[in-house]
Structure formats: C-alpha cells, structure tokens
C-alpha cells in the first residue's frame, strides 16, 4: 500500500467516524472481485451484448428469447459469493456508521453479505415477474431450457431488474433520494456514474451538505466536480482497510459521537 492510499484510507475512516451518518452508492465494480463482469470495462457485459438488443424492455415484446440468452449467462451470478468489500459494508452498518446501501447491482450480494438496509435501485435478478399477471418467481425455480420462460398463465417472464426504457421502481427512487439528502457522507463505490438517475444521487448528497468519497480504480465524471476525494483502488481491498482503520481509531479512543 503506498503512502497516498494509506493516508486516504485513514482520512476516509476519520470522515466516516466524524460524520456519522453515511450511505453507500454501489455499482458493478463492487461485485467485480466476486467474478461478475462489469458493464463498460474491457470484457464487460455490453462488449458482448448490445444493450439495445439484449437489455431493452421493448425486446420482451418483440423477441423475448433474446434478453433471456443474456440472462442465462448472468445466471453465473447465482454462484457468485460476496467479496470482502460487501462484507466490509455490512460490517460498517453493524458498527452503526452506515445507514444503508443504494445499489445499482442486481446480484443480491449485499443482502447475502448481511447488509440489511439495501435499496435495489435497478431491481434484482434473483427474481422474475410475469409481464401478464405480475406473479413473482424466485429465479432458481425457473427453467431456462426453453426461452423465454413463461408463467403458468403463459405470460412471458422478465427478470425483476430494471431494463433500459423502464422507470426506476418508485419506492426505490424515493428512498434513494431521501437517503442521499439525509446522509452526511456518501461512499460511491465501483460505478462509472454515467447512468441516470443513479448518477445524480451523489450530486443530491453533495448539494445537501454531504461529503462524497469515491472508491474506484478509475476516475469518473464525478471525480472532478462532485467528489471530495477518490481512493484509487479495488472495493474488495479498500473497504476492509477502512473498517480496520475505524476499529484502530476506536480502540485508541478517537471515537467521535455518531448521533448527529
Ligand atoms: N472495485 C471498485 N470499482 C471497480 C472495480 C473494483 N474491483 N473494478 C471495476 N471498477 C469500476 C470501474 O472502474 C467502473 O468505474 O466499476 C465501474 C463499472 O462501471 P460500469 O461498467 O459502467 O457499471 P455501473 O456503473 O454499475 O453501470 C451502471 O449501467 O447498464 C447499466 O444497469 C446497468 O446498473 C448498471 C448501470
């Protein structure tokens, strides 16, 4: 670990302790170390699958087998496990510093790691919904032998994730906006911050007085204008170090009251 990274990790630990109410916004980079490809990096999903053909809601009405071909590959997600970054966020919540996670990810890994307050901004791929009768099915109960899978009513099933052309679920949108307004520090982890409205949440947080701290191996459009600072690195490496730094500072008696 180089000096700059070490001092930024310490700074983040102090800021989280001092500011108390933190929220996290996560993107696909959060799960990269669990073996799930991101969308826009080299080797990402959109390199292989044109989102207009495979990830647009319209396709479910014109050629519904197509998006399910991609979903079948995404099914590897069923075998993915949370990485140390997911566990660190769950730990931050248990320690009382993190109020919740707003995630653009549809892989359920925050929930699996033990985070209890997760806002599913783009839905969840572990469920499917019938486009005809709105019945929900756990993904593991669906056979992907014949595509598209259908409901008992013969309606086409769709993963309960937000596809291009679909609105963000109203409750998730409201909860995410409120969490962004109320937090005093927002960790923005593993997102390229180019897809709206998710990318507007750090700005909402900033305009409401929060500090914005990015964790990402690359800079993003937020880095220069919205973020207070960025810790360049991988979520699965940086987040556990922040948690352990908070523990060290707490033991040294540097705990700062959280109820502000
Ligand atoms: N740790 C942290 N960040 C990482 C890691 C890692 N180990 N590996 C990659 N990243 C970063 C990349 O540098 C990039 O900024 O994760 C980001 C991934 O960006 P995208 O592929 O654009 O994914 P995301 O921001 O989640 O996309 C948003 O776009 O297509 C939609 O619905 C899809 O929810 C998704 C949304």
Topology:
Elements: H1 3-19, E1 22-26, H2 45-48, H3 51-54, H4 59-62, H5 65-74, H6 84-94, E2 98-103, H7 109-113, E3 118-120, E4 123-130, E5 136-138, E6 157-161, H8 170-182, E7 185-189, H9 201-207, E8 211-216, H10 221-225, E9 229-232, H11 235-251
Parallel strand pairs: 1-2, 1-7, 2-3, 7-8, 8-9
Antiparallel strand pairs: 4-5, 4-6
Helix pairs in contact: 1-11, 6-11, 8-9
Task: Characterise the protein shown here.
Helix 8 packs parallel to helix 9 (201-207). The model has no long low-confidence stretch (mean pLDDT 94). A hairpin with a 5-residue loop joins strand 4 (123-130) and strand 5 (136-138). By secondary structure, the protein is of the alpha/beta class. Helices cover 37% and strands 17% of the residues. It has helices spanning 3-19, 45-48, 51-54, 59-62, 65-74, 84-94, 109-113, 170-182, 201-207, 221-225, 235-251, and strands at 22-26, 98-103, 118-120, 123-130, 136-138, 157-161, 185-189, 211-216, 229-232. The chain has eleven helices and nine strands. The chain has a six-stranded parallel beta sheet, with helices on both faces. The chain has two domains: 1-36 and 82-122 and 168-255, Rossmann fold; 39-79 and 125-161, SIR2/SIRT2 'Small Domain'. It is elongated. Bound molecules: adenosine-5-diphosphoribose. Residues 27-29, 32-33, 38-41, 44, 104, 122, 190-192, 195, 216-218, 220, 234-235 line the site of adenosine-5-diphosphoribose.
């Amino acid at each position: 670990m180089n000096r700059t990274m070490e001092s930024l990790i310490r700074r983040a630990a102090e800021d989280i302790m001092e500011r108390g109410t933190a929220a996290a916004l996560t993107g696909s980079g959060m799960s990269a170390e669990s073996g799930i490809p991101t969308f826009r990096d080299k080797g990402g999903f959109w390199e292989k699958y044109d989102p207009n053909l495979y990830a647009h809601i319209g396709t479910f009405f014109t050629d519904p087998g197509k998006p399910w071909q991609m979903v079948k590959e995404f099914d590897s997600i069923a075998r993915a496990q949370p990485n140390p970054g997911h566990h660190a966020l769950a730990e931050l919540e248990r320690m009382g510093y993190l109020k919740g996670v707003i995630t653009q990810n549809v892989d359920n890994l925050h929930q699996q790691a033990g985070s209890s307050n997760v806002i599913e901004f783009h839905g969840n791929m572990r469920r499917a919904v019938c486009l005809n009768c709105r019945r929900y099915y756990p993904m593991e109960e669906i056979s992907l032998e014949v595509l598209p899978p259908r409901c008992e009513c013969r309606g086409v099933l769709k993963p309960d994730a937000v596809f291009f052309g679909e609105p963000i679920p109203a409750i998730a949108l409201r909860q995410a906006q409120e969490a962004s307004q109320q937090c005093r520090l927002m960790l923005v982890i593993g997102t390229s911050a180019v897809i709206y409205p998710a990318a507007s949440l750090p700005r909402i947080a900033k305009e409401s007085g929060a500090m914005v701290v990015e964790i990402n191996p690359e800079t993003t459009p937020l880095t220069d204008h919205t973020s207070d600072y960025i810790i360049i690195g991988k979520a699965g490496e940086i987040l556990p170090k922040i948690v352990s730094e908070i523990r060290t500072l707490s033991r040294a008696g540097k705990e700062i009251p959280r109820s502000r």
